[in-house]
Amino acid sequence: MIVIESLTKRYGSATVVDAVSMTIERNSITVIVGTSGSGKSTLLRMINRLIEPTSGRVIIDGRDTESEPAHLLRRRIGYVIQGHGLFPHRTVAENVATVPRLLGWEPDRIRVRVDELLRTLQLDPAMYADKYPYQLSGGQQQRVGVARALAAEPAVLLMDEPFGALDPIIREKAQDDLLEIQRKFGTTMVVVTHDIDEAFRLGDRVAVMSEGRLLQYDRPEVLVMHPADPLVARMTGSAERAMRLLSLTTAGEALADTSANTATSNNSAGAAEMAADGPIIRASASLREALSELLWRGSESGTVVDDDDKPCGRLTVAAILARGRPR
Amino acid sequence: MSAPDLLLRRPPAARDAPALPAVDRLGALLALVGAVALILLPFVVFKANRILPGDPRHLAQVLPAGEALGCAGVLAAIAAVALLVASAPIRLAAALAGIVVIAAALAAAANTLTPPHNMIVRVAPGAGFWLLLATLGLLATDAITRLRPGPGVRVLLLALFLGVTWLTLAHGTFDKVSVMREYAVNASAFKVAARQHVLLSLGSLGAAFLVALPLGIFCHRAPRLRPGILSALNLIQTIPSIALFGILMAPLGALAAHVRFAAALGIRGIGAAPAVVALFLYSLLPLVANTVAGLRRVSPATVEAAQGMGMTRWQTLTGVELVLALPVILTGVRIVLVQNIGLVAIAALIGGGGFGTFIFEGIGQTAIDLVLLGAIPTLVLAFSAGVLLDALVEILDKAPS
C-alpha cells in the first residue's frame, strides 16, 4: 500500500504538484491521467524520489520513503519510462539483470530470473538474451523495459507513459500483457498516461490531475457516472460516457450478474437451442465490443463462450443497453 | 512513358557497340602526375657533400638502361591498372608493387652513385621520387578505403607496413641513401629523440586527460558555466604554438629561480617543462569539448532509467554515461595525440627535445637530410597514432546509440 500525504513540489513560485493526498491499494493498478503539465509525472517521480518533494510524505507499506537513501529505495521499486531507456551498450539479459546485480544476487539466481522474465514477456531467451536493444523492435524493447523493472521482484512498479512510443496495435497487446503480468505477480502498479482510454482500460482506480491538483480519484465507473469536476466530465467524454461504461464490464461479468438475478437462464437445453443463431462472443470481451459485434451482424443476441470455447450463456442487445446507463 | 517504351527507344547502335572500359578519374589524375614525376623530375639528387646543393639525376641516368626501362615499364603497367582496373585488391597490389619498385630503384641508385668507402657524397631522393611515392601512396590508400577493411585489418596493415619498413632499414637496404647516412651519424641521438618525442606527446596527453575528463563532466553537469570554460580553452587554442612556448619561458624561469622545489623537479624556462605545459594547455580544448559532446550524446532517458533502477550518481557516471561517451572522448584523444606529436616537433625550438631537434638543426645547417631525419619519423608516428586510435574508436562504437 502506498500512502501519499499532501505531497507538494514547487519550482520557485510555480507549484507543479499541489498538496496531493491519495492511498494506492496493494495488488491494484492505479492510473494517473492528465494533460501535459498537470504534474502527473512529477507526482510519480516523487514516489521513487527521482524528484525530491518540497513537502509532504510518501509511505510505502508503512515505511517512509525518506527513511533510506534514494538509490536503495529505487532498487525496491520497479520503474519503466517512455521510450524504455534501455542501456544501448548492454545486452537484453544484462539490461534485465541491472537491479539484481546492484543488489548483489548470485549469478545463477540472476540467470534463472532473467530467463523466467523473458519467457513471461514472450521473448525467447535463447533468441533474445544476447541481442542489443537496437536489434529489437519497438514493442520488444518496451517488453525488455518492463522485464528490467520487474527483475528484482519489486512490490511496486511505477510506469511513466509506458506505451507512449508504441503504435496502436502493439499498444493494445502491451496493455493486455501488463494486465496479465499484474495478475501473475500481484504487483502494485502506478501508471501515468495522458490517454484516458488507456486509463480506463488498465486502471482499477483512476486519478485525474490538472494543474498540479488531484481532481478525482476513484473507480473508473464512478468517474463516468459521478464526475467531481467539469474537467473530469470533459475528459471522460460526456458524449461517449455510455460506451465508456460498457467498456468497463466484460461479457462474462455481465452474464454472471444476469444469471444470479434470473434463475431461468440456467436452462441448458434452451441455451443450446438458442446458440444456433447470432455471433459468438468471448467472455473476456467488453460489452462495448460485444454490442459492436451484435450491431454489425444485425443480431439481437449472441452466444457467450469461455476460454475453452464452451458456451456459457446468451447475451442480448437489450441486456447490454441496460448496462449503458447509471443504475 | 513506360519502361519498355524507354528500352525500345534506345538507339540499337549503343547495344551492339563493344563496351569501352570506364576510365577511373582518380586513376587518370594519379597516372598523369606519376608520368610527370617520372619523366620531368629528377629521381635522385647527387650531392658532393651534405650541405652543397645537389645535381639532379633522372632514373635513366642513375640505373643501367635495362633496369631503368624495366622500372619504367612496371610503373606504366601500374598506371594502366590505376586507369582501367576497378578491382580494389588489384589496385592495392599494384600500388604496393610500385612502392617496392621505386624504393628498390632508390636503393640501387644510391649504391651505384656512391663511390666505395666514400662517406662524404650524398645521394638524396629527388622530387621525382617523392612525387611518385605520394602518388602510389594515394593509390594504395584509395584502394584500402574502397576495400572498407575492419579496424583489426587496418591495424594489421599498419603493423605490416611498419614491420617491412623496419626490416628493410635494419637490413641496410637504404644505408647509402642520404637520410640513412644522417641516421648513421646520429643513431644514438635519434633513439634519445624518439623516446623524448613519445614521452612528451603521451605525457602531456595523459596530464591533460586527467584534468579534462573531470572538467568535461563538470561542464556537462553545469551548463551555465560551460560556455565560459569552453571559450577560455578556445582562446588558448588561438595562441600560436611558438608564441605560447615563448610566453611560458618567463613565468617558468621565474618559478625555477625562486622556488627550489620546482627547480628540483626539473622545471626551467626552457626545456621539457614549458613544452609539456604548452602541450597540456593545447590538449584541453579537444578533450573537454569531446567529453561534453560525448556525454550529451547519451540519451536522457537512459540516464533517468539508470537512476530509476537505483544506480548511484557514481555508478550512473562510470557504468552508463562515460561508457556510452567513450567513443567520442577517444576521438578527442586521437585529435590531441596526433596534434601533440606534431607540436612536440616545434617544442624542440625551446629545448624540449624530440625529433624536432633534427629538424631545427638541419634548418640551421641547411642540411635537408637532417631535416628529413626529424620530419619522416614524426609523420610516421602521427600517422600510426591516428590509425590505431581510429580503429579503437570504431571497435568501441559498434553499438549505435
Q: What characteristics describe this protein?
A:
heterodimer; A: 327 residues; four-stranded antiparallel beta sheet; 16 helices; 24% strand; globular; B: 401 residues; 17 helices; 3% strand; flat; disordered N terminus
Structure report:
In chain A, the strands form 3 sheets. Chain A has a 6-stranded mixed beta sheet with strand order 6-7-8-3-9-10, sandwiched between helices. A 4-stranded antiparallel beta sheet of chain A has the order 2-1-4-5, covered by helices on one side. In chain A, strands 11-12-13 form a 3-stranded mixed beta sheet, with helices on both faces. With 327 residues, chain A is an alpha/beta fold. Chain A is globular, with a radius of gyration of 22 Å. Chain A contains 16 helices and 13 strands. With 401 residues, chain B is mainly α. Helices cover 77% and strands 3% of the residues of chain B. Chain B contains 17 helices and 3 strands. A 3-stranded antiparallel beta sheet of chain B has the order 2-1-3. In chain B, helix 8 packs antiparallel against helix 17. Chain B is flat. Chain B starts with a helix and ends in a 5-residue tail after the last helix. The N terminus of chain B is likely disordered. The interface between A and B is medium-sized, with 26 and 19 residues.
